[in-house]
Amino acid sequence: MVDWMPKTKLGKLVVGGKITTMGEALRTGLPLREPEIVDILLPDLADEVLDVNMVQRMTDSGRKVRFAITVVVGNQDGFVGLGRTKGKEVGPAIRAAIDVAKLNIIEVKRGCGSWECGCLTPHSLPFEIEGHTGSVVVRLKPAPRGNGLAIGDIAKSVLKMAGVEDAWGFTKGHTKTTINYSIAAFEALRMTSEMRVTDEQRERLRIVSGPVKLHVAPSMAVEESVEAEKKEDTAEEGAPKDAVPVAVTEKKEGE
């Protein structure tokens, strides 16, 4: 049982068992404001720190140092999120950035859009996409199986967290700016979720939206019933087994 009391409507629906997958939660259109929702629906979520930047500012009391953290999270199977926060200490700032990344999570469409492959498995992108932030422009194209991720390390980490295994990457602008580079790659993946695909195209090209291996979160009512059954079994097992033989023995002695 999760020791968490939801405050939003989406959190109450998740705890009540009415929403059991992350895809359903995103399609409701309700704002995602509690990271615990992602922890329940995506328990196998991984995270990676992309950038740790120290920021200094001069004040009347002296020099103040803060850390700007950029983190990417994902289940490597159709869901990815990006977050950035600032803090006085590195550890708390990383944890806060992970929570922000969970709130920015998106569902990614995958497929085999390369004319060189045609395996019809969700190992690459279904079509060409592009994202830009500041001066950085990232263009991603589908690649055949075995090609790998032919792009920079920052964008490669974002694509891996989304579950994309093969892709061609082309960039423009000042890509040494890590935050702009990562956001541009993230915005490119966001285009896959915003692009409308017909049922005929989805069936013909085998486009997968979200995870291939679907995880369904159990409802809190089911968890409570399971825990109650476990407690009853434990109570029965803990009862003294020699209670009946002792009574029989006493009866024999009285005779």
What does this protein structure show overall?
It contains nine helices and ten strands. By secondary structure, the protein is of the alpha+beta class. It has a single domain (9-209), classed as Double Stranded RNA Binding Domain (2-Layer Sandwich), CATH 3.30.160. The termini are far apart.
Itemize the secondary structure elements and their pairings.
Blueprint: H1 9-15, H2 22-27, H3 35-41, E1 46-59, E2 62-74, E3 79-87, H4 90-103, E4 106-107, E5 109-110, E6 129-133, E7 136-142, E8 149-150, H5 153-162, E9 167-172, H6 178-194, H7 199-205, E10 208-209, H8 220-238, H9 243-254
Parallel strand pairs: 8-9
Antiparallel strand pairs: 1-2, 2-3, 3-4, 5-10, 6-7, 7-9
Helix pairs in contact: 5-6
Total beta strands: 10
Q: What's the N-to-C terminus distance?
A: 53 Å
Mean pLDDT rating: 85
CATH topology: Double Stranded RNA Binding Domain
Taking the sheet with the most strands, its summary is:
4 strands, antiparallel
Structural shape: flat
Question: Could you tell me the radius of gyration in angstroms?
Answer: 26 Å
Number of domains: 1
